[in-house]
From TrEMBL:
Residue spans of biased composition, Low complexity class: 10-44, 662-683
Region called Disordered, residue ranges: 1-48, 154-216, 329-349, 649-683
Feature: compositional bias, Basic and acidic residues: 173-184
InterPro entries, per database record: Actin_polarity_regulatory (IPR052809), Afi1_N (IPR012860), Tripartite_DENN (IPR037516)
Lineage, opening ranks: Eukaryota, Fungi, Dikarya, Ascomycota, Pezizomycotina
Residue ranges of every copy of the UDENN domain listed in the record: 96-710
One Gene Ontology term, aspect cellular component: plasma membrane
One annotated GO biological process: actin cortical patch localization
Protein known as: UDENN domain-containing protein
Amino acid sequence: MATVLSARPNTNSTGTTNSTTSRTLSTQHHTLSSNSDSASAHSHAPYDHVPVQLPSHRHVSNSHINGNGIPSPMSRRRQRPIKSQYPANSTEKHVEYILVASFDIDRGSVMEHQYPGPVGGDEHMLAELMLPDQTHLRSQDWTIFFLHKDAAGEEDNEMKQRRRRRRRRRKKQGEDGQMKAGAEDREDVDGEDGPGEEDEIDGDNDNFDDSSDEETFDGPPLVYVLNLVNTKQDHTVKRGAVVKAMAVCTRHSFLHIYKPLLLLALEQYFANPVIETLAGLYNAVNAMDLSLMPRLNSYERFILQSSDAKDLFLEKFEAIIAQRMAGSNATPSNPALTAPSPTMNPSQRARYGLPRDTHELESVVPYAGIPIPVKVPTALLPETVGDFSLVKLITTFSTPHSTSPQPFTPTHPHLTTSGGLTHPIIVLLNALLTQKRIIFLGHNLPSSDVAEAVLGACALASGGVLRGFTRHAFPYTDLTKIDDLLKVPGFIAGVTNPAFAHKTEWWDLLCDLGTGRMRISNRVEAVSPIPEGVRFFQQPGHLPSASSSTAGSAAGTAVSGISALAAAGASLSAGLGGSGLMGTVISGDATGDVAFMAGVLRAIEERHGEGAVRRKFRRWVVKFTRLAAAFEEWVYGASMLVIAPTPSTTHPPPSPFIAEHTSPAPSTSSPKPTPNNASSPLSLPPEVLTHGYVFPTPQSKTNELAANATRIEGWRSTRSYYNFVQDTAASYPRRPVKSVDLQHLHDRLAKLRLTSEGSGAVYLAICGVVKGEREVEELLAVVGGGVWGADGGVQGEALQGAAGGGGVGGQGQGLFYLGFGLFHPKVEVREAVAGLLGRVRDHEAGRHFWVGVGRFVQGAWERVERAREARVRDAEEEAEAAAGG
């Protein structure tokens, strides 16, 4: 278990420290204007501090104290304790059940033990899942499967705990009025928490964990089962071998950490086949200490997943250790307990419980007298189960396609969106998004291979954004369960029996892991009638531009475009023969899929790593959802996939310069009140209140939406679509910035050629709404996700390192486009951007982005800050002289 010793001194809850090795900072503070005074009571004013020299990444900034000496909301939040993802006093078990099954020559698969009690359900079916086909041919094999265990009793207990937490909070807050008592009674009846209520502390949802959304919408979490099968030769028994399997059942999706423990435990069970062996394993894994893993909110998880920096959010680990030390018997007076230091090497730092890499928490599980090290992921995105490899999945199907391409026959409008030679991985993505029945076949391969392929496919289409794949996935199944499998719409299953390949009515897409080829079933459901969204792009005024020949065309013949369907009088269902709607490629690669897969394969060849590949597919899924929202708004007039910006009087007030420059005569750069926000203190110009995906030109919008029309229409009737609608509505109350679409504004800076007036309005809008810590986190999540360009999503990579625009550890362009604001012609824009970058630099995650901007941008920031400091000082001297005169 992680050793807990004294933490770094002078560390607040996020770990900003007053290190003696930090460079000297200027601590001069000045009052800008009466406008900034009024703003300081509610938000972190961007111009309170004027550091002249570049700070080190660990320092104490006085920027969280306003002119009246009152800490800002950001500093007040940082004084609150950091929560643990797995508190030491939690009653939740890491592993709920341990199962043992064996194969009997007379009775077949038999369940020998279930500890600490029966799992429930059909024991024979569980035993068959634990002993896959042809397992006697291999000495060892791994399988994974999921259980949909009824958790009604557990939900009742959780509901009672929520009620007790609400009552304690309200008693502390003094909420004892009749109206609030009535509201509490209503909530007790419903058994539901409001948005962010369960995890709030005094109304602050800084550490809100929205991982409970899956339980809210889809029922209780799945029980993930990791199973190990061993075959030992024994000529004294029938068939000359003994086959046994041991499995652990857990609610945690990182079940792969139990592999070394299962290896030891199953060996012990072969030697001593008694239930006490299971009890020893059960007690050992549930004694694992993960209480030093801080809980991250959704933005922090995404930022951590988007970066390769090994000390990102290290301050949270330091703070949680300090909290543990505050309640322990250890004291700093003990000479053996020396405080952690930033200069410690990784091995020394690990002694104090600080991880070498914050992406995972290292712990130790003592079992059978052996300390077993385990590494638990700190931030897991939805639909991520186990230790699959997307690189392996992609190369399996990309290599045969690149060496000997074979067109898909038949084609399908939902699947072959770039014609018959659509890349197999894109076909798989389309099949997952449009809820087709998918089989991964691994004849003569270990069942672990097909299970990993299924899990990888779920993560591929989810991207950490969409849900509903793993709940309908079967990492391993066999012919005995085919009747139950066919009752599940849009299943993703892994099999090893070649009989599945001959039953085309059982599946829509077959992925053969042995040959690296995919097949579309000739019995796949046809798309008829033509969806309204497809017909929309056949109307005059919405026709995409046509290309007479395209590099990516399946047959290399001339094609006319999406309107060719109507001209030929064909139906969409006839597109199965390859002559239908999406058998064409508009303007070469209108979907961008060809360029995207080229970028993915280039990243694999250059060994960018598994994390970089996963980030690429996350960006692809994010782009797809934003395209779908734009599609619905254009075709149907509205979309449930996006919530438009809603300027509100409750939003943090603007920066001083926005307030100062709203009074002059109207111009394109001056904020103008609109009917929706006339009463808001943050009056934004109409051009920054737009939202959604940014298209470089109107024609590119038509082309791209037309090229994705059938794929989007196919997605609109699936589970993942409705789950995404629910997630969008549920996450909106917790979104820090509601008055503008930060992703949209950032994309406008990156993809459009704006005038100085237009770019100034965008910069001022971003600076005006990004004030506190949570707003900075949302901005970092936006810039960490990158910008999807016309080149298929590699725009950020091309810019990385250019003009100091490199991101942090694989995060693309990072603050590159925001840094351009330091060179804007208008002084108010330059100073507003400098204040914003100062807040980013002071943030525990933002400091990593700040280091990545390079000396060119950092030098420009210094110059702007010095000029602002001089201007404010001159204004104060003039005011003092006027008062003295």
